Amino acid sequence: MRKKHKTASGAGVANGVSLEEPKTTREDWRKKKKELEEQRKLGNAPAEVDEEGKDINPHIPQYISSVPWYMDPSKRPTLKHQRPQAEKQKQYNSSGDWYKRGVQEHTVAMRYHRGACENCGALTHKRKGCMERPRKAGAKYTGMNIAPDEHVQPQLVFGYDGKRDRWNGYDPEEHMKILEEYSTVDLAKCALKAQKLQEELASGKMEQVNSSRYQGGEEESNSQTERDHSSEDEDKYADDIDMPGQNFDSKRRITARNVCIQEDIAKHLRNLHPNSAYYDPKTRAMRENPCANTGRNPDEVGYAGDNFVHHTGDAISMAQTQLFAWEAYDKGSEVHLQGDPTKLELLHKSFKAKKEDFKAQQKESILENYGGQEHLDAPPPPSELLLKKKRLAARFSPRQFLGCLTFRGSFGRASPAVQDRASPAVQDGVCSSQFCSHRLLAFSQGKASNNTPLG
């Protein structure tokens, strides 16, 4: 039987007709699938199709296109599970939706309902969030004066753009109402002003100087009234204008900028010498006098540096007051220069007066204990003594310097006490010889020659 079967199968294969397809192994199936994927990537084979008939990109990996077993048991390749699921998507409100403000429901319940506010009886809030005055007996127990329900605001959920929309909820019609109100007020003002003008003309208080001004018709009169009205508004709000870099003059009705006159010379151009005063371009400050090396008087110069301004007027006294305020605050006094300047000024004056009194008392006590008032009352010395030239320094040769060292004493010793010139006592450290004394005096005055030996 085995031989017959072999011959029959061999005859079928020899004739080119296979009765049954041979079973492929797992490796053969993987090889075929891999070859098919390669052909699809090259475009030689048609791409896979999902359940909706859409082609699946052959370059998408299998772990993305394959469906998990718990989602689709058929295991058909698809990309539906990779797309956003409709049931999980948030629904956002449009940018035109907004909360309603100031809306109240006027439907009033006739009796108290369970779950309503125990205080007022409204169904839209509880007793904890009730904004009415607490009643002595709430609506839950009396069933009377039940408050109407408030308007329940919708729960709006906005997306990224809706959350950051600055104009969301803005109603331009509200602004148009404000414009209409202002225009009505302006028309009423113009009518009132025209009526006042007619009354003044009729009473003779106002004379028509230029009659041609009033012959231009109704349009010119309206423009004139508008101009007068605008000028009055400028005068009205002139005191409130405080803008940096501008100065408003209500009398002249002009706005002048506080800028330098273009004819003025800049700080760094007043002296072009490289060793002149330093100009800081960042702070635009020149603290030193640019004309200091020119020999001109600072009072005659138009600009003498920023420090010249800092040391003039009350700048020094202001700095002293500020220093006194800091020292007083450190010692416990509640004073401040900008917070309470009057109190600080009075305290500073009393402090200076007490300081002067203390110095005077201290001086009197010292003079009383030790004396010396006659020296303070003595006349000043003559100007010849004050302006006397210094003596010339004595010049010694090395030989003379060695000769001076042979004297008793040393030049490094402290000078002895001053004694009377008529005293016969011999001073220590000084040669007692009259000749040596004269020679030393000559050397000290620079009259002796360098070659003359010391006696």
Structure description:
The chain has 455 residues and is mainly alpha-helical. Among the domains are: 27-80, no CATH class; 113-150, no CATH class; 219-257, no CATH class; 260-311, no CATH class; 317-370; 394-405 and 428-455, no CATH class. The chain has 14 helices and 2 strands. It has a two-stranded antiparallel sheet with strand order 1-2. Helix 6 crosses helix 7 (218-236). Residues 1-17, 209-216, 238-245, 407-430 and 447-455 have low confidence and may be disordered.
Brief summary:
Belongs to the SLU7 family. By secondary structure, this protein is mainly alpha-helical.
Number of strands: 2
Q: Helical residue percent? A: 25-40%
Mean pLDDT across every amino acid position = 75
Q: Would you tell me the structural class of the helices and strands? A: mainly alpha
Low-confidence stretches: 1-17, 209-216, 238-245, 407-430, 447-455
Major beta sheet summary: 2 strands, antiparallel
Distance between the termini: 164 Å
Please tally the helical runs, counting DSSP H or I stretches of 4 or more residues: 14
Biased composition (Acidic residues): 231-242
Pfam families: Slu7 (PF11708)
Subcellular location: Nucleus
Biased composition (Basic and acidic residues): 20-41
